[in-house]
Amino acid sequence: MVLGFPPSALGSRPGWRKWSSCVVATALAACVQASAAQAGEHEPGYALKAGYLAKFTPFVDWPDAAFEGPTSPFHLCIGGHDPFGGAIDRVAGGLRVGEHPVVVIRLSPVAKGADCHLLFLSASRRQTPQQMLAAVAGRPVLTVADETLDAPGAVVQFVTLESRLRFTIRADMAQVAGLTLSSKLLALSAQPRDGGR
Amino acid sequence: MTSPAPRSRWRPAFTVSMAIGVAVAIVAAAFAMAAYNEHLGQQERFRQAEVQLRILAGSMAAPLAFDDRSAAREYVGAQSSNPDVEAVAAYDMQGGLAASYTRPGTPPPPARNVLGSPRLEGPRLVLTSPVTEGDTVLGSVYLRTVLESPTRRAMRYAGFALLIVMAALLVAVLGAANAREAEAYRKLRAEIREREKAEEALRQSQKMEAMGQLTGGVAHDFNNLLMVASSGIDLLDRTTDPARRERLRQGVRQAIDRGASLTQQLLAFSRRTPLKPEVVDIAARLAGMHALLDRSLREDVKVEIKLPPDLWRVEVDASQLEVAVLNIAINARDAMPDGGTITIEARNEPSGRPDGAGDIVRLAIRDTGVGVAPEMLTRLFEPFFTTKAVGKGTGLGLSQVYGFARASGGEAGVDSKLGEGTTIWLRIPRSTKALAAEPTVIAPRKLEPIGRHRVLLVEDDDSVAQLVEEMLRELGYDVARTGDALAALDVLRRDGAFDLVFSDMVMPGDIGGLDLARDISRLRPSLPVILTTGYSAAAAAATNEGRRVLIKPYRIEALAAELDTALSGPARPARA
């Protein structure tokens, strides 16, 4: 249930065969990692983070060009080590971004030009966050960095303030990525709040 | 149908109940308007609350999504600045209370989310709304707001209601007053009508009483005169003594003259006597009356006439003037049972204007009698008013004086004090015309015919006709007589050799004397016509047309003079 691509994701991709070898390879790699993580369920606090990832989507506008069709899947990618376990799959199950069903993709490493809409940057022994970011640079990808990562190039950075999970948003990065963030989301950014509010 | 009378009679019957009805209608209309306003206002406030809730839901999306309690509290708390908001709450996706605000003293919002359609809880409006971002439901918000506090609403409507109630009260009071006034007016008019009827009845009865008094007096006077005439004629038959016969004839003549003057007074009172105004020198006339006055009054009554030499002339009917003076003098005599002095004075009263208009000659006749009580003064000139016993006076004397003064363009008045005598005065406008020719004294004329003239006499009364025929023959005329106007016209058509027509005015048949005169004027313009009547209205009509009129009763000398004038004068005499 957790591993691999949902049938719908496979069927709806015309350019599937061109990428298949690569994707299968990465999927297999992810499978190995995921199975390890799955055995111990998710790490503490990551259920909340998984929820946050899902909740970011309504506040973000992806350009139409980011999707192949009006109902093509929304790729929620997890770069590096998957700390969520089944929690992310539970959150994504049935979740839609607009008309796009959400598909969780675990990438380790994040290949150059990975087809993601949202990329959660997790710690990885194989790639630095910068490398992961570089892989999706210039594409409309909402990059969310885990709080332990030092990834100044990510659009969203989880932080813990007063023992509560919060996040900072770098609006300039979102602009570079070609994403439109809701001001409501920006208003909750921990960074600007500390700075100017 | 189109007469304006019904329209002018129409007046709205505004009753007290209608006034109250209008007032109630005003209040009802005001309340209906207020209710409608209230309804509109509620809808408006409902919309406002909805907008507020939507803004809140929109702003709550991110805080609820990311469980940012402080932001949620901040947004929720911001709603408290609206004093109408009682409670605000935000619930997360699981329906748990995320943030809330409750105005002190009001119940808190529910602990779990209660999504539902807007509802009214008493004066409070409860609204709920899901919080969504895109298609994602992130939670819900709850808003409870007071539509308007009762005290504020009361304050808002109190002034308005006060005004309306006052207006309604005013309308009711004014309307009721107006209605009552209209009712009173209607009653008053009805009463006035009743009173007018009563007054009319009273006048009628007074008139009847006066008529009784008058006829009593006149009958008494006439009976005396008839007694004199009757006994005189009886005695004439029994005596041959010329001197005695002369005395008897004189007596009968006097009685007849008095009878004539009595009827003249009656006519003067009715103001139908044709006045024959002429320019009169009052001094000369009064001087001529001295003897008459002396005869009419008693020996213990002295008459003094005091006249300035330069007294202005007046234009009046001379004989009426004499009658007026005589009437006043007789009243004065009767007011002095123990004798006294009657002073007749006259003086000029200049108006001061250069053209002399308004100049007046004042003639006053003063006695030293008992005077008149003040309450009687105003009634003195009333016809039939008399203080004398029945048969002693007709109540017409001073009425004639008044009628004469008014008809002459002047006025009459009375000043009196009880016990000190009475002054009755006449003020007559001055005339600047030349004095009329001295009244020709009709001398008993030697009745010599100047040539036989033929006169057509038209008279319906046989006895009168017989005597008039006699008189005319006595005066040397040939007389033919017809009984009515139509016969006279017949005669005139057949026989053109008449020199004059002498016709009564009031006759049986379709045409009267005046019509006859008109026909003759057309038929034979050169034929003179003299009309005669004892009926004053007819005489006035004829005089107005410029016809010659001889008033009955007349003496043979007057008849002779009139015939002479008509025969010698122009065929169509000028207007009198």
Write the layout of secondary structure elements.
The complex is a heterodimer of chains A (197) and B (576).
Chain A: H1 7-11, H2 16-39, H3 46-56, E1 60-61, E2 74-79, H4 86-92, E3 96-97, E4 100-107, E5 118-121, H5 129-136, E6 142-145, E7 156-161, E8 164-169, H6 171-177, E9 180-181, H7 183-187, H8 190-196
Parallel strand pairs in A: 2-4, 2-5, 5-6, 6-7
Antiparallel strand pairs in A: 1-9, 3-4, 7-8
Helix pairs in contact in A: 3-4
Chain B: H1 5-9, H2 16-65, H3 69-78, E1 85-91, E2 97-102, E3 119-121, E4 124-133, E5 136-146, H4 150-238, H5 242-269, E6 277-280, H6 282-296, E7 301-306, E8 314-317, H7 318-335, E9 340-349, E10 360-366, H8 374-377, H9 397-407, E11 411-417, E12 421-429, E13 453-458, H10 462-474, E14 477-482, H11 485-494, E15 500-504, H12 513-523, E16 529-533, H13 536-544, E17 548-551, H14 556-568
Helix pairs in contact in B: 2-3, 2-4, 4-5, 5-9, 6-7, 7-9, 11-12
User: Number of helical runs of chain B?
Assistant: 14
Largest interface: A-B, 16 and 16 residues
Rg from Cα of chain B: 52 Å
Termini separation of chain B comes to 47 Å
The number of helical elements of chain A comes to 8
Trace the largest sheet of chain A across and list its strands.
Answer: 3-4-2-5-6-7-8
The assigned CATH architecture of the domain at 278-429 in chain B is 2-Layer Sandwich
Could you please say which CATH topology of chain A applies here? Answer: Rossmann fold
**Which word captures the global form of chain A?**
globular
Q: Could you give the distance between the termini of chain A? A: 45 Å
The H-level CATH homologous superfamily of the domain at 278-429 in chain B, spelled out, is Histidine kinase-like ATPase, C-terminal domain
* Rg of chain A, Cα atoms, Å: 16 Å
Note the main sheet of chain B: 5 strands, antiparallel
